[in-house]
Amino acid sequence: MDYANVVIKNRRLVWCWVRIKLYMCGEQCWNLHEARLKHRKDFIANIYYELACIDYIVQDADVIWLRNPFTILTTNETQELDIQLSTDFYNGDSTSVSNPINTGFYFVKSNNKTIRLFEKWYEYKDNATGLKEQDVLQNMTWKGVLGDLGLHFRFLDTRLFSGFCQESPDIHAVATVHANCCRFINAKVADLTTVLRQWLSFRANPSNQTTPFQWPKHVHCLKSWD
After folding, report:
1. Which of 92, 99, 107, 157 has the fewest Cβ atoms nearer than 10 Å?
2. 147 part of a folded domain
3. Nearest in space to 117 (alpha carbons), one of 54, 25, 48
4. pTM for this one?
5. Which residue range is the domain that position 102 belongs to?
6. Domain membership flag for residue 80
7. For the segment 145-185, what is each residue's pLDDT rounded down to a tens digit?
């Protein structure tokens, strides 16, 4: 099974890359979805359909990787899961729909159930004026749509998938850091840069491995709310 880390920075570049990856999946898979693609105008929807043969991560550009998240997302314990969604605040229960989701980072196993989920998501989005796509999916989880579709899902612990909303208490386990709870790109870049510098300093000094780690304050993101 191929895996894709999808970060949409340049529409044309990602489009071509996805087509190459799909071609590797096989001619049959490509033909299966070619007809649908011709009638879909939404670019993001096209991406989901073009990735119909591979399991993949979708993430925003304000997420940095400190460790390989696939080692957490693709284990024997997660084999039955169809989708794994990050959270702004983790309530301690990976199956609780009361977890506030964040679609800035999630892992999807490609199958008929997840394809149907994205179809439903876009159906709901078209009738949800004023709501962001994340809010639409959150409402769907509250209404039990994921369960109705037969999806096996979990919400990701911020101990492993940290964010500015709720920081991981375990620097030895955390895989990603998301600049959520922050308003502007410049603020996100500045504070993520500080996080990355402190992480590299922590990794470079062996003595740090036994001393408590302190996340840097997100000064620019805090000011972004002023």
Report:
1. 92
2. yes
3. 48
4. 0.79
5. 3-155
6. yes
7. 999 999 999 999 999 999 999 999 999 999 999 999 999 99
